[in-house]
Amino acid sequence: MKRHHLSTYIFVGLILGVIAGYLINIYIPPGARNKEIADGFSVIADVFLRLIKMVIAPLVFSGIVTGMTNSDGPRELGRIGGKAMLWFVVASFVSLGLGMTLSNLYGLGDGVKMPHSGVPVEFNGAVFSMKTMVSKIVPQSIAQAMAQNEIMAILLFSVFFGFGLSAVCKANGTKALVPVLEEVFQVMMKMARYVMYFAPIGVFAAVTSAIAQHGISVLLVYGKFVGGVYSGFLMLGVLIMCAGYAFLGRKVFELIRSLREPLLVGFSTASSEAALPKLLERLEKFGVPRKISTFILPLAYSFNLDGAMMYQAFATIFLVQAYHIDVTVSQQIGMLLVMLIASKGSAGVPRGSLVILTAMLPTFGIPVEGVVLLLAVDIFVDMGRTVTNLLGNGVAAAALAKWESKHLPSDVPQPGTAPAPHAPSLPTTPIEHPTGLASNQTAMH
Fold it and tell me: What whole-number distance in Å separates Cα of residue 371 and Cα of residue 374?
């Protein structure tokens, strides 16, 4: 099933869920019978959530380990890698901070009725105590951590395993285990895509259950949420352009014009992977050396997902507000920082933002049932999220090239013109990513 076809089916599932839920709400008023029917649809949505959770642990583990063993290490990355990581970290904090601020100001989740898990909803603030943090981060047993989807413990074990495997591979001069783990990662990726094929059914069931119990007014929540997120994307895009202006001056406007085509591809397909070849081509024509663009972009696809970071902030605070959970600002910051770290193991995962939310929310005592409802409008949010990711990555590559070389060619060809003589044509062979992954499809769109 192609990506755009899946999005179409999810949209169809949303529409059918609205119709079915409305009919149930009208002809079977809220009561015991209504709740019984709604609970039946809720079970279907719960199965979909469990399928997502099923692949999280092996996916994160294999993704982090293979990424570490196929990189050259921090010393070999040199100045460009250090500058890139500094840029990415600052951009991630700005994205999360802006998203958290706007979501609190908008109050999009206030007054929303969400499906509950059947237990009292209370924020698990103890997760930020020293004792609890240690127990969550340092696993007694990696098998237990994986069985319970303790994502922070899995991250720590994966990092240690990656360091150990890299040392063994270097000492022995072989990488016998690395190809196996790469195959595991590819298998988990394939399984994640298979699970997403059930997304239309999960969305249909979740929307039907919600509207059957709470009525058609719940649809207003979707419009407010999408509008709020897009206003955040717009503000973040302006900040990204301002950062580019600090390095490139007025050339940043020429860069944006040059990137129109890959941005349009990303918006129409909601796929960063589909826009990558055109993005590389436009950056090279703009004057970014290929050695920088082919290094920065794959790295950025894992660590510079500005739109995805902002969306995670919006979605998390939305669910906190919808479930009427009392969370302080410092606890919100802690939550988002944990998600920031956890998201680095989800590069290339289909709709990775929602996967990370599903994995992390139970850690803080937040029900995950609302994630399925967010998936219903994710097809709309995904387009803006992808464009914001691509814009951030394109500006980052150009700014870092200027930072590294102190200048860019003054003759900037416009889109559609022939490349400058110094700019060789793009290779036709697949680009080797520094992480060893052929091309990170950013489902953390």
Answer: 5
